[in-house]
Design goal:
It is built from 9 helices and 2 strands; from the N terminus they run ααααααααββα. A hairpin with a 2-residue loop joins strand 1 and strand 2. Helix content is 79%, strand content 2%. By secondary structure, the chain is an all-alpha fold. The radius of gyration is 46 Å and the shape is rod-shaped. The chain has 3 domains: 72 residues, 434 Repressor (Amino-terminal Domain), CATH 1.10.260; 56 residues; 41 residues, no CATH class. Keywords: DNA-binding, Membrane, Transmembrane, Transmembrane helix.
């Protein structure tokens, strides 16, 4: 009988030890870090390293405490709130939607839509830049063509001057100027009259 009681007591102790062991396992599992938190922590750390920021600098620029950032990177505080993500995205110069998507706050279709929107914005910016460059190139080409036309006109004028030997014939040419001012028909007639007077006076001597 005594042996039987000791056997029961031993079994009860064994069961109690098993229950304590299971309770310990459950408590450890309860404290285990979720995989999502670990992944996000590594993601945040990679962003910080890419930005070449220390935890202290990131804390100063984002307004999020350095210990909290350290806990996030180790996956000990779970996924940060959208407010914290907004502060971190600004300091890390990373799109807020990227952090929200990585943290699981945005569904896959929303993330894809945001990616398409960002692609469209990038394409539009490139299009505007190309359009601006094209407009500038057109203006430069127009200015060059205008200068070329002026040069061609001046060349023809010089060639015509070499051919013309009669002063009165020269005065009939269009586009003649005096110190930058155009000579009109009445100006040319006055010049021709003065020249005629001077030559007539010279012949009379």
């Amino acid at each position: 009988m005594q042996y039987y009681l000791k056997s029961i007591q031993f079994r009860l102790q064994l069961i109690l030890l098993q229950l304590l062991y299971f309770a310990y396992i459950i408590s450890v599992i309860g404290r285990a870090i979720p995989l999502e938190a670990l992944e996000f922590g590594q993601y945040l750390k990679s962003l910080r390293k890419t930005a070449k920021l220390s935890m202290a600098v990131l804390a100063e620029q984002s307004g999020v405490s350095q210990p909290y950032i350290s806990q996030i990177e180790r996956g000990e505080r779970g996924i940060p709130s959208p407010e914290i993500l907004k502060k971190l995205s600004t300091a890390l110069n990373t799109p807020y939607t990227d952090l929200m998507a990585k943290a699981g706050f945005l569904p896959a279709d929303t993330t894809a839509s945001m990616d398409r929107l960002n692609s469209i914005k990038s394409f539009w910016a490139e299009y505007q830049q190309a359009t601006s460059q094209q407009i500038q190139a057109d203006k430069k080409l127009e200015s060059t063509n205008r200068e070329l036309q002026i040069a061609e006109y001046e060349l023809l004028f010089l060639e015509e001057m070499e051919r013309v030997t009669e002063l009165t014939e020269f005065l009939q040419k269009p586009g003649i100027t005096y110190k930058g001012s155009p000579l009109f028909d009445h100006d040319k007639k006055r010049i021709a009259g003065v020249i005629e007077y001077l030559f007539a006076e010279e012949r009379g001597k």
